[in-house]
Amino acid sequence: MIYSVGTSPQCVTVADLNKDTLLDIVVANGNDNNISVLLGYGNGSFGNQMAYSTGSYPQSLAFGDFNSDTQLDIVVANRDKNTVSVLLGYGNGSFANQMMYSTDSYPQSVGVGDFNRDTRLDIVVANGGSNTVSVLLGFGNGSFAE
């Protein structure tokens, strides 16, 4: 089976975004400056994409619960904008408009973890243009320190 997403897909990952115990797909679409969300039906097929805006040329993405509401949220590394986009999830497979946070030059990969042991998720970004790593500490309400 083949499913339409945006142009120049860069990264794909899976998670249960709507709490139905079925895996869903999220794709970072580089040339469209968005992500595609395809909800799974549990039989190997998926619904049509729902697109959500990101920064310029989304390169990679990761999941986490950034606002402590037990719903999965998405963070996206925006290569050509030197930012990450955070999209808070509603728990039904849909997401709020992005919030952007600055990184260093050419962010290419993003990860999630609790780096300062405060029980709140933080974001780490690999910046290919500056040979650095940006760490954005989470406040637990969906926002981050830059």
TrEMBL record:
Pfam families: FG-GAP_3. Keywords: Signal. PANTHER family: SENSOR KINASE-RELATED (PTHR46580). This is VCBS repeat-containing protein. The lineage of its organism: Eukaryota, Metazoa, Spiralia, Gnathifera, Rotifera.
